[in-house]
Design a protein that fits this description.
Helix content: 25-40%
Largest sheet: 7 strands, mixed
CATH class of the largest domain: Alpha Beta
Oligomer: single chain
Bound molecules: magnesium ion
Radius of gyration: 18 Å
Number of domains: 2
């Protein structure tokens, strides 16, 4: 088991994990956040949220400048001063263009973040209009609500796959992104960057509650599956030997998982 003295990176999902699914509060995990800070253990957010939303949250949690993974792995920011490049914005534009074409040609019924205004996103998510604007600032993936049948979903996924795009399911939304990106691929890259930086054998502990967290939980050394509301079971690969399922939801479960794996003495 890792201790607070080890070179350890804690990688966490946000909604339903570090943040309460309903209230977005992280207070029940505050004690652990302080412990990580005091021991200089990096806390890396790994979320379907946008970079703009994550940076805002980092400011409110006193974590500005920490590396993060946004848009379900489509965006990885290791250096705080790295600006989103144009390629990213083009990627979002290209995804939107394809979605609009598919809807027109095949009549799929869905609503993406690019189809609605911040008020509607506020209604879907409970976010304030201000935060909803940040959620719309997408770089490399689209979030959407599906209003069609399961059969049509399979057809939709096949059309996207033909364009090298894949669908992943988050807590509230589906997400479309490049088929080569996932939270898992981004975590592997992140850990390479840590190891390259100082040559130490960094360990990773990951926490998540949804099916979109599975690739991340498979990529870390220690996996915490936080009890969640997803209908789809969250099962990690049989190769993952260090797995703990919490009995509590959200940030309470988050603390429970940290308690289980980290020797604080
Ligand atoms: Mg989640």
């Amino acid at each position: 088991m890792p201790s607070l003295q080890d070179p350890l990176v804690v990688i966490t999902d946000l909604d339903g994990s570090l943040l309460d699914h309903h209230t977005y509060s992280w207070q029940p995990a505050e004690h652990w956040l302080e412990m990580l800070k005091a021991n200089h253990i990096p806390l890396v957010f790994c979320s379907s949220k946008t970079a703009a939303e994550i940076e805002q949250l980092q400011i409110s949690m006193g974590l500005s400048g920490s590396p993060f993974i946004a848009e379900n792995g489509a965006v990885l920011r290791f250096h705080p001063d790295a600006q989103p490049d144009n390629i990213m914005e083009q990627r979002y534009g290209a995804i939107r263009a394809l979605l609009e074409r598919l809807r027109e040609e095949k009549g799929f019924k869905f609503f993406g973040f690019g189809d609605v205004d911040e008020k509607v996103i506020g209604e879907w998510t409970g976010l304030s209009a201000q935060d909803a604007v940040l959620a719309q600032r997408r770089e490399a993936s689209e979030a959407f609500i599906w209003r069609d049948s399961d059969e049509r979903m399979a057809e939709f996924a096949a059309c996207l796959a033909a364009a090298d795009l894949a669908i992943t399911q988050g807590g509230r939304f589906y997400h479309i992104m490049s088929k080569n990106s996932s939270k898992g691929a981004a975590v592997q890259r992140l850990m390479e960057l840590y190891r390259q930086r100082d040559g130490r054998q960094w360990l990773s502990l990951g926490l998540g509650d949804g099916p979109n967290d599975i690739p991340m939980l498979n990529a870390v050394d220690y996996a915490v599956i936080i009890r969640g509301y997803s209908k789809t079971p969250v099962d990690v690969s049989a190769q993952q030997h260090y797995v703990y399922r919490t009995s509590a939801f959200g940030p309470e479960g988050w603390s429970e998982g940290m308690e289980h794996f980290i020797t604080s003495a």
